[in-house]
Amino acid sequence: MSHDREPIAVIGTGYVGLVTAAGFAELGNEVWCVDVDAEKVAQLQRGEVPIYEPGLEESLARSRGRLHFSTELGPALEHARLLFVAVGTPPTYSGDADLSAVHAVVDAMPASDHHALVMKSTVPVGTGAAIKRVFTERGKSGFAYVSCPEFLKEGTALEDFLRPDRVVVGDDGDWAGDAVVELYAPLQAPLVRTDIRSAEMVKLAANAFLATKISFINEIANVCEETGADVLEVARGMGLDRRIGSHFLRPGIGYGGSCFPKDVSALKQLAGNSGYHFQLLTAVIEVNELQKRRVMSKLQKHLGSLVGATVALLGVAFKPQTDDMREASSLVLAARLQADGARVRAYDPVASEEASKLMRGVEFAGSALEAITDADACVLVTEWSEFAELDFAEVARRMRGKVVIDGRNFFDRATVQGAGLTYEGIGR
Ligand SMILES: NC(=O)c1ccc[n+]([C@@H]2O[C@H](COP(=O)([O-])OP(=O)(O)OC[C@H]3O[C@@H](n4cnc5c(N)ncnc54)[C@H](O)[C@@H]3O)[C@@H](O)[C@H]2O)c1
Q1: What's the count of helices (H) and strands (E) in the chain, helices before strands?
Q2: C-alpha of residue 358 to centroid of ligand 1, in Å
Q3: pTM of this prediction?
Q4: Whose CA is nearest to atom 36 of ligand 1?
Q5: Which pLDDT tens digit goes with each residue over 253-270?
Q6: CA of 324 relative to ligand 1 center, distance in Å
């Protein structure tokens, strides 16, 4: 198969770039990867994987012969016509997307009539048109452009690449769009072939909708707490309605990560910049911020003042199965706890190293049991599966206090209470 698969390039080897490279290499494509981070490239050349993503290391190792890593664009341009762009587009202070890395890539492209940029980075609607304008102004109008947004979820990213719900390809109907469609053909996924602006909007709208669903169920959870209903029962009853669906109806302490917060605010800003006030998203963002702080009032309810209290945080990555700490709820929570005078101890199975750089003054433990030892309260922040094995009798023996706040409704309430601990979930 590899003989008739066309070589591609991937620019930016972070979560999306590496998974895209690994996925296409599995399909038999030669992949020429480029990153400006020389240390990352050196690691990848040695066969080391700089991020934690289940199955990725094994996949890259399996396809090692088809993967090339460099800090130089030259080999990529020489071997591939399709250049997938997967550089970061973090939020600026105003909430707009920072496109400087995307523009650095655009600026580095030579004049060519047989190359195409295939945008995987999440960008505001109109970015493709702006890039095409730049190409034209600089005498590079032969450079083709395709929007191909990425929908992978960290933690199951490779599987999402190989079994996507859909592939979205936005283009101007030229060779490059056809080539991208052909590249994805072996995955046999539903295809949405559309114009560039609509493809750009699909990505932002999909993430904004998922975030809305989360904030919605979080508000239902908060009302459940006031009225004595159990949100887990409510979510089950709602989710079985096929028009609603059960996904993303899990109340908790707010969404985080590298995508939802920035994409929701980027869409809100994009609307605002175009003169439209996106009221719903303003509320979605505010509800999420308040939700991250609700744990504080739960702790205060049980402990009174937090001055001098020791609070253990179990799990700090923004979700399980990743080491990604971007916009993690734990960051807000740890800062709030410290500001109120609490001592914070944390444990995460994989994100501790990254987290310790970001969470100043937080003590990191080598295990969940070490983290909760002598703690007045413990908060489950990220529901890593290993926490399902916690022996609550041992937890009760080791803790100084009794309070367990289950920020993801993950523990079995009866088991926790059976050990003599005080259980508090979200919305129940
Ligand atoms: N992480 C996700 O779950 C996810 C999912 C879907 C879409 N996205 C989008 O994909 C894009 C990338 O996200 P990520 O999480 O992979 O980011 P990341 O920060 O993990 O990786 C970005 C990489 O790009 C490199 N880079 C920056 N400037 C470069 C340049 N000029 N040339 C070459 N390399 C350069 C960086 O060194 C880094 O390795 C973002 O737009 C993001 O919104 C991310």
Answers
A1: 17, 14
A2: 19
A3: 0.94
A4: 12
A5: 999 999 999 999 999 999
A6: 12
